[in-house]
Write a structure and sequence with these properties.
There is one protein chain. By secondary structure, this protein is an alpha+beta fold. The chain has two domains: 139 residues, Rossmann fold (3-Layer(aba) Sandwich), CATH 3.40.50.10330; 137 residues, Probable inorganic polyphosphate/atp-NAD kinase, domain 2 (Tumour Suppressor Smad4, Sandwich), CATH 2.60.200.30. It is built from six helices and 18 strands. The strands form four sheets. Strands 7-6-17-14-9-10 form a six-stranded antiparallel sheet, with no helix packed on it. A six-stranded antiparallel sheet has the order 13-12-11-8-15-16, with no helix packed on it. The two termini are 38 Å apart.
């Protein structure tokens, strides 16, 4: 890859690590990078860098470094993916499944990454359109991980139909349903009993949440299809909603539809050299029971 020369920096909105962000910006400046910092009141007194909103970051940056947890990267990803700006995640959270650079190794990797010596990866993301039964307008949303249809408050099942393109799949009674990208297969969908989907797969997983019928199991479809979810007429009693990456939500009424498909552009991630998806699974999720390094053939 070509070297990165204009680098944006995004920190956690709440409780950012000021020392880590300050050191990152100083290191970037020493590498002759122009640094643009997303506005954050907590950073003004400790970091000297031009403040730029996300529209400016999307327009000007070759790379954006996100310092925070997976939630911070999801939020930045939805905003910057349409512009094709690659993101590098530095973990200031707990799990750090997507923000895979540890703070203690950040400076070790930084010079090589800025010089273009890194592992680029495109991740498929989702586009969801909410179509109102009582109106002609529709609302479009992006989701890096998942779109979740569920009850807003009480523990009560909702009824909904699922369609693949124009083909009817089934009627469902469940606490809700998760529609996940391959990236999101290791998030809420995994907790709901869904499969692990390799991030290179062009696929979408649909995972029911606590279905009333035990045979109502997860299904994986190709990303060239759309999944359509139609809210049943009993929704007036349960107040359904659609949630995008667990961060943004809209209320749903009876007859409303949520149509989910692959977004036109992927989320571009940057990893340090030596990155391994299965290494992340073993390290972060304690996945598998075999050795952490290959033993070779017997």
């Amino acid at each position: 890859m070509n070297p990165f020369r204009v680098v944006g920096v995004i920190g956690k909105r709440r409780d950012p690590d000021l020392v880590l962000l300050r050191d990152l910006c100083r290191s970037l400046q020493k590498l002759d990078c122009e640094v643009l910092l997303e506005p954050n009141p907590a950073l003004r007194s400790v970091i000297r860098a031009p403040l730029s909103d996300r529209e400016t970051l999307a327009r000007r940056c070759d790379l954006v470094i996100v310092v925070g947890g997976d939630g911070t990267l999801l939020d930045a990803g939805r905003a910057l993916a349409p512009a094709g700006v690659p993101l590098l995640g530095v973990n200031q959270g707990r799990l750090g499944f997507m923000v895979d650079v540890a703070p203690e190794t950040m400076h070790e990797h930084l010079a090589a990454i800025i010089d273009g010596q890194c592992v680029p990866e495109d991740r498929m993301i989702l586009s969801a359109v909410v179509k109102r039964a009582a109106a002609r307008d529709s609302l479009a949303h992006l989701a890096v991980n998942d779109v979740v249809i569920r009850n807003q408050a009480t523990i009560r099942m909702i009824e909904f139909e699922t369609w693949l393109d124009d083909e009817f799949i089934s009627n469902h009674r469940a606490d809700g349903v998760i529609v996940a990208s391959p990236t999101g297969s290791t998030a809420y969908a995994l907790s709901g009993g869904g499969p692990l989907v390799h991030p290179g797969a062009q696929a979408i997983a649909m995972v029911p949440i606590c279905p009333h019928t035990l045979s109502d199991r997860p299904i994986v479809v190709g990303s060239d299809h759309s999944i359509r979810i139609v809210i049943g007429q009993d929704v007036e009693r349960v107040r359904a909603m659609a949630t995008f990456d667990g961060q943004r939500s809209v209320a749903l009424d009876a007859g409303d539809e949520v149509e989910i498909r692959r977004a036109p552009l992927p989320l571009r991630l940057i990893h340090p050299r030596g990155y391994s998806y299965f290494g992340i699974l073993r390290d972060k999720l304690r996945w598998g029971s075999g050795p952490t390094a290959p033993r070779g053939r017997v």
